[in-house]
Amino acid sequence: MSISTRTPTASPEGDTSPLASSRSGTDIGLLLLRCAIGLTMAVHGGQKLFGWFNGAGLDGTAGFFASDGYSAPKTMATVAGLTETLGGLGLAVGLLTPLAGAGVVGVMLNAIAMKWGNGFFNPSGIEYDLVLLAGAVSLALAGPGRLALDHLLPVPRGHRLSHGIAAVALGAVSAAVVLVALHD
Predict the structure, then answer these.
(1) Residue 70: beta bridge partners?
(2) In sequence order, what are the residues at sequence separation of 6 or more whose Cβ sits closer than 8 angstroms to the Cβ of residue 134?
(3) How far apart are CA 42 and CA 33, in angstroms?
(4) Rounded-to-integer distance, Cα 143 and Cα 67, Å
(5) Phi and psi of 24, rounded to 5°?
(6) What is the model's pLDDT at position 183?
(7) Cα 170 from Cα 163, distance rounded (Å)
(8) If you ran DSSP here, which 8-state letter would residue 146 be given?
(9) What is the Cα–Cα distance from 53 to 156, expressed in whole angstroms?
């Protein structure tokens, strides 16, 4: 199954830019969603890796993973920080969007698993993580829209629903492997 990648419709003045097309609202909406989810994830990654924005940094994050029963906590902190940073930036600019979405899906599923049983609402519940997960899944399935760097890549040109489904499955399988193999 393929998602249609129609060419922009021309305005009465002959303008075929993405903003003049009938799908411009969808493209702008996807851009805003990508930026909100992606930049939020990138900032979280910066907190883990570098201690930016009052974050714990790599050592503090490793201590958190160790206290929660993860083996190789420094490696887990590095992988989580890099996945959040790179996946978040990828979503924000619309680059390798299904793959970036897969990374965020994996991280968010692990975050939800770690908080499971603490209720739904913040500060210790899963509501925030669930919203980020839903946004990442939505972007992986819908694609980045036309206002994205993915359209500058030589292949593949059009977003396919199958790519999104495969990305969500990859994120879920990766999360399961981490939880089963690396969590005591």
Answers:
(1) 183
(2) none
(3) 14
(4) 37
(5) -60, -35
(6) 81
(7) 10
(8) S
(9) 36
Residue 46's contacts (CB-CB under 8 Å, 6 or more residues apart) are 52, 53, 55, 81, 85
Alpha-carbon distances of 81 from 19, 58, 72, rounded to whole Å:
35, 8, 14
Q: CA-to-CA distance for 41 and 159, rounded, in angstroms? A: 22
Q: Alpha-carbon distance 44 to 6, whole Å?
A: 36
Assess contact for 132 and 40: CB atoms under 8 A: yes
Burial status of residue 104 (CB atoms within 10 A of its CB: 0-12, 13-18, 19 or more): buried
Residue with tokens 């619309």: 94
Q: Which residue has the tokens 């978040």?
A: 88
SS3 category, 70:
strand
Task: Tell me what pLDDT residue 20 has.
Answer: 61
- Half-sphere exposure in the Cβ direction for 108 (13 Å, CA): 27
Q: Write out residues in the chain with pLDDT < 50, as ranges.
A: 1-13
Per the rule left: phi > 0, alpha: psi between -120 and 50, beta: everything else, 32 is alpha
Give yes or no for a contact between 48 and 61, defined as CB atoms under 8 angstroms apart.
yes
pTM of the model as a whole: 0.85
Cis bond before residue 156 (omega within 30° of 0): yes
